[in-house]
Write a structure and sequence with these properties.
single chain; 331 residues; alpha+beta; Dna Ligase, domain 1; 3 domains; 4-stranded antiparallel β-sheet; 11 helices; 13 strands; metal ion binding; ligase; ATP binding; D-alanine-D-alanine ligase activity
């Protein structure tokens, strides 16, 4: 029986960029659809929540092993938003790409992720969670503040670099009012790096890392957008630093128990790398997403990346115990 891939996605709408900055463009989805079709799969694109739930529950239980849901749903505002698809698929015994709902929910919360990973020795800058707009300044300047549960640089601009108590009073209360929780970190003044991890538990492989280059001192939401993507990657990373980042990246994947893929960001201070954040639902655009660029720098094609991620999803479905309840009840 021919396998079918469902691209479960939110589609970027330029009319509401602040809400859907992390969502994929129609061009990206169309390119993914065509590429996956060339791999021998049937492909369906679904972007409506009710339709996705209806289609998945309507697949005959005996055929669910032949389907794969590619999780591209980002949602907005909810702390569980990146876990919608993994939880639904696990409950219905339908394979999906990427990590479990537990990993997705944890990594969307920057504070909890850093707290967890720091306890195992992953280096981080000092950090605090602020959820009260009346919170007095943490006088450990300079500081950097950003929303605790957003990606794609949402809510980040040049003013997020806090140098004084007056800066705090101008920026932090407004961010807390808008995003509910913000994470405050000791400012890291060095260059930013990113790295990808592919694989399932016990079999991870890290990409070569790259410096992330962008104009100015802050990677803001004005830079990271679908309309004006101006970042570039510099793959000339010193060998010692590269190996250190690969070691940290695989350790992070193992500690989290991630599946399929991760993209992890670090920043330097005095040439030492500190963890910034972990992204368990990275973009897959062949045009503007970082993970495919990291993969292709290793000499492999975009098509090979998508095929590998699908294979990892099917392998996870066959071997991971988290599907057992659904398999027993549904199959």
């Amino acid at each position: 029986m021919k396998r079918t891939v469902i691209l479960a996605c939110d589609l970027y709408d330029p009319k509401t960029p602040e809400l859907c900055q992390e969502w994929e463009s129609e061009e990206t989805i169309q390119n993914m659809e065509k590429t996956i079709q060339t791999l021998g799969y049937d492909v369906a694109v679904l972007s409506n929540p009710s339709e996705i739930a209806s289609v998945l529950s309507g697949i005959p239980v005996t055929e669910r092993t032949h389907w794969m849901v590619w999780n591209l749903v980002e949602g907005y505002q909810s702390p569980n938003r990146e876990a919608y698809i993994p939880a639904l698929c696990e409950y219905l015994a339908v394979p999906h790409t990427g990590s479990s709902a537990a990993v997705q929910t944890l990594t969307l919360d920057k504070y909890k992720t850093k707290l967890f990973l720091k306890s195992f020795g992953i280096p981080t800058a000092d950090f605090w969670l602020v959820d009260d707009p009346k919170q007095k300044p943490i006088e450990n300047f300079p500081l950097f503040v950003k929303p605790n549960g957003e990606g794609s640089s949402l809510g980040i601009g040049e003013k997020n670099l806090i140098q004084t108590a007056a800066d705090w009073d101008e920026v932090v209360p407004a961010l807390v009012d808008k995003y509910n929780k913000v994470i405050v970190e000791s400012y890291l003044s060095g260059r930013e790096l990113t790295i990808g991890v592919l694989g399932n538990k016990g079999n991870y492989e890290a990409t070569i890392p790259a410096f992330v280059e962008y104009p100015g001192s802050v990677y803001s939401d004005l830079l990271k957008s679908k309309e004006s993507f101006v970042e570039s990657l510099d793959f000339i990373v010193p060998e010692g630093l590269s190996k250190s980042l690969q070691t940290y990246a695989i350790q992070i994947a193992d500690l989290l128990g991630s599946s399929g893929y991760l993209r992890i960001d670090f920043k330097l201070e005095k040439n030492f790398p500190y963890l910034l954040e972990v992204n368990a639902t990275p973009g897959f655009s062949s045009i503007y997403s970082t993970l495919p660029l990291l993969w292709e720098n290793g000499g492999k094609t975009y098509s090979e990346l998508l095929n590998h991620c699908l294979d990892l999803g099917f392998s996870e479905y066959q071997h991971h115990h988290r599907y057992n309840y659904a398999k027993d009840r549904n199959l």
